[in-house]
Structure formats: C-alpha cells, structure tokens
From TrEMBL, chains A, C:
Any one Gene Ontology molecular-function term assigned to this protein's record: oxidoreductase activity
Stored SMART domains: Transket_pyr
Entry superkingdom: Bacteria
Lineage: Bacteria, Pseudomonadati, Pseudomonadota, Alphaproteobacteria, Acetobacterales
Organism the protein comes from: Neoroseomonas lacus
Needed cofactors: thiamine diphosphate
Keyword NAD in record: no
SUPFAM superfamilies tied to this protein: Thiamin diphosphate-binding fold (THDP-binding), TK C-terminal domain-like
Name this protein carries in UniProt: Pyruvate dehydrogenase E1 component subunit beta
Keyword terms of this UniProt record: Oxidoreductase, Pyruvate, Thiamine pyrophosphate
Length: 321, 326, 321, 326
C-alpha cells in the first residue's frame, strides 16, 4: 500500500498493463507531453512514440482509429482529454464502437478503453464540465466505469484494459489530485461490484465518481448511519447490492453530479422500484444538478454543486420521511 | 489453357469477379424489390471495375473498409457470396447472422472489416487498422473505400492528415460515381475535388478511369507496391457512374435518362471482355463465365429464400460480455 | 379537417410557416429533392433555393451553420435526415446550440428547430434505427418534441418554429405514411401538454412517438380501461397530467421504443415516484427495448419491437398487480 | 494633430487597441495566477497584430466568431473591456453575467458572436451567420478566427467547402502560432498547411506575417473588399507566435526558451510603434498610449476585484423558456 494521487494511481496502472501486454497502446492529444492531468507522464520514455501517440486535434479519428486498431488485434486506450470533446466523436463511439460486434454478428470486437475525464473542475464552465455518463449507459455494447478513489482508478483501469468489451472510463477531473492508499501491484477490480463505503440502516445512499468523497463526508457529517454504495461501474451496476440494502432500509437516495433529469439516478430509482416493489419503499430521492448548464462564476457554480451539506440534508430528509 | 499467359488468367479472374458482383447485385435488387429481402440495398452496378481493380492487388491478410454500397468490395476481397446473400435475406448463416443486412456486410476471415451505414466512417477505422498493423509488424496494408460524398465530411480531412502524418499503409479509394444520394455531388462540392483535397493533406493522389478495370488495376498495382514499400498512404480517385438509383427502389428521377444510358454503354464488364477477346479469349468462354456468375448468384438467392430464419434469441446475443442483456 | 399522412401534415405545416415568416428556412441533405420522406416536397418550387437549401454531407456544419444563422436573426430548420446522423453533430447541438444563450448570459438565442426522424423503419439495422430522445432530455437548453400523430406533427412543428428556444423534433420514421385527420390551418400545439388518448381507472399508460398507435391499439385490444397519455413533448413534459392520473389509478406503465435502460421512461418513473410518493403506488413498469442494438433480420427486429400484444400484456400485468 | 494623415490616425488607433489587448491580458494572467480570477485564461500576447489588423477592416455590423484565445478578437472588435474583465472575474456586470468566463467571452452588441471552448467550433457557426446575412440582405460580413490546431478537425474541411459552395461573405483567419496546446502543431499536421487545405476546398488563400500588424491590415483590407464585393470567402493565413504558455499557468517547457525570446524580439507592438515613430509620431505619444492602456486595464481589474458577485439564482436563468429549471 502506498499513498498516492488518483492520477498517479492511474498512471502506474497503465504502465503496469503496458508492460504486461505489448498490444496495449494509447492515443490522444498531448500524450507525449504526459496528458493534461499528468496521467501519461513518463510513459513515452518507457514505451516510445509508437505506443504513446500524440495525435492531431481530430477527435473523430482518435476514436475511429481506436476502433480500427482494436479490430486488428491491438488494445488501444483512446484518450478524449475531457469528456465534453467526446461530443466530437459520438458517431465513432456510439454507432461504430458500441455496435461493431453486434452488427457484424460477432466477427470482430472493439476491445478498447475510452478515457474521458469528466465533470466540474476549476470553473471550466458549460463546455468543459459536463457529466454525460447516463448517455453511455443507454448505449448497448458499452461498459461504463466511473471510479471515485485512487485505488479504484487503478483497479478499474486494469479491468478496462483487459476487458474484451469496449469500456468507457470516466475519471472525475476534480479528483485527479485526491490521495488515497493503493496496493502496490493493484489487482483488477471486476465491473458491476459496488464498494460498500459505509454501513447503516437509516437509508441506502448510492453514488459514484466525483461525488464519492462528497457523499462520504456528508454521511459522516449528518451522523445518521446509512448504507453508502460507491457504484464504481454504471453498466453493469451492482443492482443486487443496492436492492438488498433498500429492502432493509426502505429508503433510497441517489447522488450524482450530472443533471438530475434523465441522469443515471433515474435508472437506479426505476430499477429499485421495479425490483423492490412500491410496498417496500418509504422514501426515494435523487440529488443531482438542476437542468442548467454549468456556469463559470464561483457563486453560480457553487449553486449547482453537490456539497457534503446538501448530501447531509438529503439524508436527513430521506431517513426521516 | 495451354499458352495462356498469367496476365490473361488474372484478367479472366477479374472478369469473373466483376460478373459475380453484377449478378449478385442484380439478384439482390430483385430480391429487395420483390420483398424477399428486407430493408434496402445500395447497388454498385456499373462500378464493379473499381472494387475488382483494387482488390486484385490485395492479399488475404490485407484489410479493407467499405461503405453502404459495399457488396462489390466484399466479393472482390473474397467474401463468401452465399453468406452475403443469406445476410441480405436476414437468414441464419448470413455473414453477420442476419444482424447486419446489406449495409453491414462484413467478412473478417478475408480481411473485409465491414460495410458501414455512416458516410465516411470507414476512413478513421482504416487509419487505426493500419496503425495496429504497424504496431504488430504484420505484413499487410489497408484499402479504404468511400464515395465522392464522403469527401465533404470532416473525417475525410482528419483521416487524410492522420494517414499522411503517421505514414500509414493505407490505400484510399474514392469511388466517384457523381452522386451523393439524390444530389449531384458537384452541386455540393467546391474546389478541385477529392484528389486535390487529399494532396493538400499530404496524401499523393492518382486519378483513374474507374470504368476501365485494367486501368484501375494498373494504378492500384503501382500504389499498393509503393505502400508496401513504405511510402505511406496513397489516394486513388476513380471516376465512375452509378447505373441504378441510390437504392434499389430509387428511380433516379433527378438525372437525365440519357446520362445513365450513356454510362451503361461504357460498361466496365464489356470493356474488359473486349480486351480479353482481343487477347484471344473466346467469346463463348466469356459468356460462360458470365452465365456461371448468374447461376451462382441465382443459386444463392434460391438458397437464401428457403434458408431458416435466425433464432429470435440471437437478437440479444453478441452485445457485450459484461452487462449483457438478460 | 382533412385526412392526410404524417409527412404531408408536416410538409403543409412547414409551408404555412414559411409563408408566414420569411426568416424561416431549411437546410439539409437532399432537401431540394424533397427530403427522403417527402416532407419537403415541392417547397423549393415555392420558396427557392435560398430557403430550401440542399447541403453537402456535412452534419457538423449543417448543425453549426443552423446556430450561426439563428444568431443572425433567421429561424433555420436543421434537417438531420435521420436521428442517428445527429451523432456526427453532437458537439454542435449539445455544446453549442443548447448552451449558447446561457453561456453568453442571454446575449443570443438559438431559435431553431432540429428535425431528426428516428426509430425502426424497414429493417434499417443498428446504425439507422436508434431512439436517443432520452439523451436530449438530459441536456439543459433543449426542448424535446416527439409527435405520434399527423395532427401533432403539424401543430408541434409550428410551435417548434415559433419557439425562441432550440427545439429538437423527433419524427417517428415508421409513421411518416400513417394517416390521420388534420385541421386545415392547424394551430400550434403548446409544449408540455399531453394528449389524453384514452380514459380509464385501471392504470396510467404513458407513451410517445412511434409507440402511440401501438399503445392505443394494445390498450383497446386488452379491453382494460386505462388512462393513456401521448406525451407529445418530452421536455417539458406533462408531469401534472400523469401525476394526477397516477394518484387516481395507482399504477403506471411507460412504453417507449428506445432502450429501457436510462431511457426517458426511467425519468417518468422516477418523477412520478417522487411526486406521488411510494404509498400511492401499486405497480410500476417500463416497456422498452432490451439493451441491445437493433438487428436487421425481421424475426430479430420483431423480438425487439413493442407490439400491441406486448402492450396489452403489460397493461394486464400492471392493472392486475 | 494638424497635418496628421488619416492613415496615421488609423495606425495610432491600431496601436492603441494592440496595447489595450496586451494590457488586458497581462492583467488577466496576473489575476488568474493570483487566484483573483477563477478558471484559466488563454492569453494571445504576441498575437495582437492579427486581431487588430483584421478587425480594423470590419464595421460594427460585421460579425466575428472566436476561439478559446479570444480576448484580442473581442477587444479589437470593440467589445466592452471592463465588462470582459468583470466576466473573467466572474462578477455581476460581466459580458456574460459571469456565466461564461474567459472561454466564452461574447459581446453581441458589437457583433462579437462569442469565444468558444471547442477547437474549430466557430467555423460552421460563421458559415451559418453569413448565410443568414445573405438571406436578410444585411450589409455585413463575417470574420472567423481559429488557430492552426483547428485545421486538423473535421469542421475545418466542412466549413471551407460550405463557404466556397455558397460563396458566403466570410473571412477565415487562421492564427498560426505554431502550437496546439503542448504540441508543436507541425508535429501533428501533414501536407502543405492551412492555406493549401483551404484552397483545395475552393477558398482562395493569402499568407501574411501575423507579427506585422500593418501587413495583416493591408491583406485584410484587400480580402474584406473582395468579400464585400461578392467574391465569396477568403482565407488569411497569419503566422505568429504564442509568447506565453497555452494557458496562464503553462510554463511551456516543451519548447526552447530562446525560441520564445526571439519571438518577443519580433514584438508586433514595437514593430508598429517603430513605423509610427518613423512617420513622425513622437515616442512620448506612443508611450502615453501604452501607459493609458495599462491604466485602463488596471482600472478594470481593480473594479472587477471589488465588483459584486452575481446572484446565485442567476445559475438557473437564461436556460430556456419552455421547461426552464424550477
Ligand atoms: C453521416 C451520414 N450522413 C448521411 C447519410 C445518408 N446517406 C447514405 S449514402 C449517402 C450518399 C453517399 O454518397 P457517396 O459518398 O458519394 O456514396 P455513393 O452512395 O455514391 O456510393 C447519404 C447522404 C449517411 N449514411 N451518413
Ligand atoms: C475539439 C477540441 N479538442 C481539444 C480541445 C483542447 N484544446 C483547447 S485549445 C487546444 C489547442 C488549440 O490549438 P490552436 O487551434 O492552434 O489554437 P491556439 O491555442 O494555438 O490559439 C486544444 C487541443 C478543445 N478545446 N476542443
Ligand atoms: Mg457517390
Ligand atoms: Mg495554435
């Protein structure tokens, strides 16, 4: 176990995978320079410019080339720089990568990882702060992963690289510098297994990504013992753990940074209601962003932000209902 | 045949494939019109010389990416025509198990990485395929087919720059049939055309008469040799004409009938046949090649019509391993 | 009232709006040729090639030019041909059009309509059959409209054109040839008002777009009297009508063609649960597509399809629970 | 001043705007580094001659689209610099009410249609703006600024073709500062460069030394006249250099310090000042123009630091009319 940042954990995991498998390589803007969050730092020195490839500003082709490279037997890491720029490569991700195995009847597979750091960070405003994870959970063919701790950043990246499915990995921009304990040769973490971050009977609280530390703090601060789950992967997601917990607590709170309307919280709520039945449920709430873009100015951005205090309040509401 | 040169034998093989493509598509269009085959087909009738001229210079290990108008590319690359016909009919045993249909024909076994329903989408895929080939030190190249309409989409520019930048082993083949769906492509394209654009991004371009299969073959042979020699990507601009409508049901009312009629006069198959006859191949042999092609494809169509449907459960397989639909 | 097809109703409505307002114009592929569903047929003869503009295959620029044209005072209709191709123009729609008013502090508005015919039609397979309406409801700034009848095709298109907000209009490809009665000078239909298609106490059934006739038929066939709502617009949506009905019936069924997981049905369920409370709910179900791409072959496509029989079954389940 | 020519007066005005842009950005970078201004700024210091050289040829009714590095374009187009500084500080009264910040500076009142956080995104927008201007028979043109990195994105090709096709009144201005973020753009760009690509799509191109504001002015003057005359889109390729890092915090370790130092020697402001001095404008007057610029921007920064924050409720306004957040 070593204490390190989220970025360093991810960097180390990638280096370990690249040592393990010579078919793993990465492409994206400024990768030779280490990536904009340092998550590729030093890799070009070890792996050379054939495996750490700095590309033109050509998101469609970064993504589409990743697919072609996967179809020819390599395992590319497609780096989108920030999630918002994936909007420039959506056809390649959604109509090509996600569907290639299916529409060709299993002849080929897009075994690749698309990394897209997401969310609010340093007042980046409307075009650089989006959380579109719900979109990707809606797309058949994709695995969607959203780590919230350095250890999970490492373990899930390893699983993503070894997965034969295309995996979208959404790193929370705001947590790149967050620190945590990471095992020295971190094991891959399976998809679809939530981390049970806290235990309690008052409510079931579900979250992921940048909200993980916020929810953990909020739950501590309000002093109400809840079951807190960090989903870690959104598709597949650990429905069993959440449903089992809700059967006991009868109360569900889902917290995410993304816009609430049609966010993944809606899916969690709908599935839990379908699985548990309305009889077993006393209270349900989603805490996410208002349906507004992310503004620049700090007081405005703060008005959109999920904070420990808002989480604590929501837990009180749900637990007390 | 005693005394027949390798070259002639090769040309006969080209003619055979062109005839097979034509026969395949004639059956496909008929099957679509009659309702036997679901969905739409985009026939490349009249353009067979481009697919065959290029693919006769490819090895099995080489890859191709294709378009919505991809039957010819697939057959020319050696794809299983019966499986293709089954696929067009949505039957079990189809190339994609019935999941893809005409617009998603693929045959990975022969390096045919797939038709594509999105104009221009094959260009980035071809670039990445070539990058992987480089990384794994495979001895292969990639041929990337697209239409003249694709040169107005962003990925065209990105892909040309990309291939030139990394000096990738890609042969870009622009099949310029003059139309993008119902619009004459010259009415929506400015500047000097596909080749000029490719060159502006650093990909050397060659123009060829796509209605002359031997000219395509000669040009492709030269370009493929350069690519295998490490010269980086090359661009082949092949002028041709789409005899049929955009799809099997489009009557192409947006163009004068004489224009299409004139194109039919320039038939790439007859043109190659004439060369072969001049080289001494008997007309009867040519006729028999064409008849065999028709018989083959009629056979495939007949087989497809009676082939079993895929199991409905297949609708939910091959989606993904983790989180597959229940 | 005249009986006409969905396409003809839309075509007439557009012609009427173009006559009314010289600032309305349309751009997209093959528009001069009438569009691929005939929904622009004959318009170039009346309005000329300055207002019915056939474009290159350049989805990013079709969409982005629409925005520029709106910012300079015209009211463009951006035609995407089919919804799937919007994937080639997502940055322009989501990061530009949807956000321009907000991020510039109200200085400019993207008063335009993006038309994107969607869904299954004639075995078009995975890349030409997607329903991504839920995505767009998740995006602040956008109005999302999904008509299911010829009359609504006309009335909602008129509202979309007159709206100062950017409106995404998703026409169901499968219903272009469906017929219905349309008023001669059809009035604009306000957003956020559901059509109450049938009345009954056994359950509340919510649907939209191509599923509208399917649900109507299914409800008739099962012979159980339900409240059936055709939402018509998904953002804003008629939460009040649905919630009021569910308060009475205690049972909710949402039917849509899109993939169920993270589909808009999840949002409807989540909102209804939040608004009605779990106490007032006896049964909740979503009927949508499995999380798989749309296959080509008829028996496979049929396995994914929502049919009147499946709707009837679902109504029986929900009403009987 | 008696006897001073209109031309000299115009050049003095150019110098003033260049000095104002530089002073604005120096204050902006300082404010960002100190933490007074949130977020990041992308300074265009060293590139002022391009923005001013182009915009001196535009009327108020003309529109511009800009980039993430847009302060200079905005000021040159006549945007309210105080509102801009307030915006960078996220304060009430900012150009966008604090909602946009540096990357989304806009001032529609003077035809500045917005900076943009997405590389190349302004290109299609500029095309559409020009189409609307044509439709409404407005007497105006559009200038579209973008960096050399944008020429590798798809919308570049699409927009060039589009503008040429419809002969739109657009001046495309490629500010070629040699870098795309941390990468030397030549390392990721193949072929003959931005101008060659534009010409391949049918947009005539002119190259200019972007560090010479008068050269930019002369070229822009000529191109704008052509555009107003109905000649269709024109392309201006302006070579320049980005003195600072990509953002106010980037130390630009990826390039030799001497390279940046040499660029600073070629300062477009000193160059224009030297011309003016040679024309008889006293050095003291020039010094005073520059001092005034600094004083103005320090004043704006001071004002911004003490300006009220926007009401948090503003986070939820100006989203949309129908379905606005509750
Ligand atoms: C991105 C995208 N936009 C639009 C379409 C619809 N479409 C299918 S084929 C076609 C015309 C393509 O023309 P071209 O590239 O010349 O190929 P051809 O059909 O002539 O072989 C169009 C517009 C599409 N498939 N993909
Ligand atoms: C589509 C997209 N990809 C990546 C980025 C990240 N990014 C911001 S500025 C920049 C470099 C742009 O270079 P250039 O166009 O030359 O403009 P300059 O910064 O030199 O002014 C990059 C890669 C972006 N904003 N948009
Ligand atoms: Mg064509
Ligand atoms: Mg640059």
């Amino acid at each position: 176990m070593t204490r390190m940042t989220f970025a360093e954990a991810a960097r180390r995991a990638l280096a370990e995978e690249m040592r393990r498998d010579p078919l793993v390589w990465a492409l994206g803007e400024d990768l030779v320079q280490g990536g904009i969050f340092g998550q590729y730092k030093g890799l070009v020195e070890e792996f050379g410019t054939e495996r750490i490839v700095s590309t033109p500003i050509s998101e469609s082709t970064i993504m589409g080339a990743g697919l072609g490279a996967a179809l020819c037997g390599t395992r590319p890491i497609v780096e989108m720089r920030i999630a918002d720029f994936t909007l420039c490569a959506m056809d390649e991700l959604v109509s090509q990568i996600a569907k290639v195995r299916y529409m060709f009847g299993g002849q080929g597979r897009a075994s690749l990882v698309v990394r897209m750091p997401q969310g609010m960070w340093r007042n980046s405003a409307a075009q650089h702060s989006q959380c579109l994870e719900a979109w990707l959970t809606h797309i058949p063919g994709l695995v969607v992963v959203a780590p919230g701790t350095p250890a999970d950043a490492a373990g899930l990246l390893k699983s993503a690289i070894r997965s034969d499915d295309p995996v979208v990995l959404m790193e929370p921009k705001n947590l790149w510098t967050a620190e945590g304990e990471v095992a020295d040769d971190a094991a891959p973490i399976p998809f679809g297994v939530a981390r049970h971050a806290a235990s309690g009977d008052a409510a079931t609280v579900v979250t992921w990504s940048a909200c993980v530390p916020v929810v953990e703090q909020g739950a501590r601060e309000c002093g109400i013992a809840c079951d807190v789950f960090d989903l870690r992967s959104l598709w597949p997601w650990d429905e069993a753990a959440v449903v089992t917990s809700v059967r006991r607590t009868g109360r569900l709170l889902v917290v995410h940074e993304a816009v609430t309307v049609s966010g993944f919280g809606a899916e969690v709520v709908a599935r839990v209601v379908e699985a548990v039945g309305t009889g077993g449920l006393r209270a349900v709430e989603r805490l996410g962003a208002a349906r507004a873009p992310v503004p620049f100015s700090p007081p405005l951005e703060n008005a959109m932000r999920i904070t420990p205090a808002r989480v604590a309040e929501a837990i009180r509401r749900v637990a007390g209902a | 045949m005693p005394g027949r040169s390798n070259e002639t034998a090769r040309r006969i093989a080209m003619l055979r494939d062109m005839a097979r493509i034509r026969a395949f598509e004639q059956e496909a269009v008929a099957a679509m019109r009659s309702g036997e085959a679901p969905g739409v087909v985009h026939p490349s009738i009249g353009q067979e010389g481009v697919a065959v001229g290029v693919c006769s210079n490819l090895k099995r290990a080489d890859r191709i990416t294709s378009t919505h108008r991809g039957h010819g590319h697939a057959i020319a690359k050696g794809a299983d025509a019966r499986a293709m016909m089954l696929e067009l009919h949505g039957r079990a045993g189809g190339s994609c198990g019935g999941k893809g249909g005409s617009m998603h024909i693929a045959d990975f076994a022969v390096g045919m990485l797939g038709a594509n329903g999105v104009v221009g989408a094959g260009i980035p895929i071809a670039c990445g395929a070539a990058q992987a080939i480089r990384l794994t030190k495979e001895d292969a190249i990639v041929a990337c087919f697209f239409g003249d309409g694709a040169v107005n989409r962003g990925p065209f520019l990105e892909g040309m720059n990309w291939a030139a930048l990394y000096r990738l082993p890609v042969l870009f083949v622009c099949e310029d049939n003059g139309f993008a769906a119902f619009t004459r492509n010259s009415a929506v394209t400015a500047g000097g055309g596909p080749a000029v654009r490719a060159e502006a991004c650093g990909v050397p371009a060659t123009a060829v008469n796509g209605e002359d299969a031997l000219a395509v073959d000669a040009a492709a042979s030269e370009l493929v040799a350069r690519i295998r020699g490490g010269a980086g990507p090359q661009f082949l601009h092949a002028k041709c004409y789409r005899w049929e409508g955009h799809t099997g049901t489009d009557v192409a009312a947006y163009r004068p009938a004489e224009e299409a009629a004139a194109a039919r006069e320039r038939d790439c198959i007859r043109r190659l046949a004439a060369v072969l006859e001049a080289e001494g191949v008997p007309g009867a042999e040519i006729a028999s090649i064409e008849a065999q092609a028709v018989a083959e494809m009629q056979g495939h169509r007949g087989a497809a019509m009676v082939a079993p449907w895929p199991d409905p459960g297949a609708a939910f397989s091959d989606v993904q391993d983790a989180g597959a639909p229940a």
